[in-house]
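Supplementary Methods S3. Complex input for the pyridoxal-5'-phosphate-bound model.
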Amino acid sequence: VAAKGELSSRLSVMTFLNEVADDYPEAISLASGRPAPDFFDMDGWSGARALFDRYMQASSGASALTTARRIAQYGRTAGMINDLVAEQLRRDEGLPCDADRVVITNGCQEALALCLQALCSAPGDVLLVRNPTYIGATGAAEVAGIELLAVDERLESWTAAIETALHAASHRGRRIRAFYVIPQFDNPTGSVLTEEERVEILDVCARNRVVVLEDNPYGMFHFDGPTLRPMAALDDHGAVIYLATYSKTLCPAVRVGCAVLPKTLFGDGLAARVLATQLVQRKSLLTVNTSQFNQALVGGVILAEEGTLSRIVEAPRRHYARNRDTLVNALAAEFAGYEEFVAWNHPLGGFFLTLELPFSFGAPELVRCAADYGVAVLPMLFFSLDDSQRFRVRLAYSDATPAEITRAVAAFGRSVRDRMTELG
Ligand SMILES: Cc1ncc(COP(=O)(O)O)c(C=O)c1O
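Predicted complex, serialized as structure tokens:
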């Protein structure tokens, strides 16, 4: 157990978490941010594939057999369902989006990896990130040997924070090429950037030719508060590459996501097309194309739903909202009288909440919580570039029942009080 407490790199975090889950299978997990499987409609979605076949037949004039064989064959690297995805993103996310700007990928993760490698291709190219941030983004950068720099959000504005990072990078002969951000229901923090913040980030990034990599897997799981437009919908500069996925709205196994490129890259139409070509060329050598069976499934669902997933996400959205309510109510009851020591945010959507503790919580504390109290939560340190997040944990409320959440919070509360007593 002690050895597991030593994490050498973020690459080992996933292995470590799997080991904890294997070692303590009876522990309730508020650690994993998986979508709730009750809403996976595999039969319905698989059935919708036939709709896509018919759609393809009608648009190509080919026979049913030829169409089926085309789908089973190697396919176009940039994707087969780009028009349907563009329509869904226009309808559901308000994104100005044409099919020819969409590159279909194996989940958002491939889109991320392709974009990072294309944007940060020269030695000294740096990716700017928030701290903490999604481990899939920092992990993809780490695998590609791309240096990371954290933006300092304690400064008075985003302009100051990003410009300070730009100066620090150039001082060391580095160039920040992209800023990775999850403006809507952030993973891991659950926070939202206001429209003013989004516009300010766009302005400062555009002025400095830093591409904004906007990741939006949770945008459709909005519970309350204002409906905000994605940064890509606010972008007049050609600064944003938008990353989307069907892992949360449908299910992770489809492994279908995409990158949506801006019409111009900082006003340069040719540069945007060159970047699109670079992504497609890289993809052609990495994964050839995204499974056309799975694209046909996603395309069929979009057709069956007439271009919007709003009906499909309604039941899971209500489930996640109810879980958020259960979690914040349980926390308020559990930590009544401890407000001075324990605090948390109130997520307006998505899967995650941030909890602040009066003591440091890392890998050994996670193991102890799972072993002695039967509950697993994630140290925010796992998402962090330094030790500034050591007093925080991420609670995921997506893949648990309300009863499990209530029990998990009671157990976690006991562990926190015991630890506080131990530390005096
Ligand atoms: C912020 C963020 N981006 C991307 C992903 C991964 O998406 P995909 O399954 O499409 O690769 C996740 C999944 O947890 C996520 O939280």
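DSSP finds 14 helices and 13 strands in the chain. The pocket of pyridoxal-5'-phosphate is lined by residues 33, 107-109, 134, 136, 182, 187, 215, 217, 245, 247, 252, 257 (CB under 6 Å).
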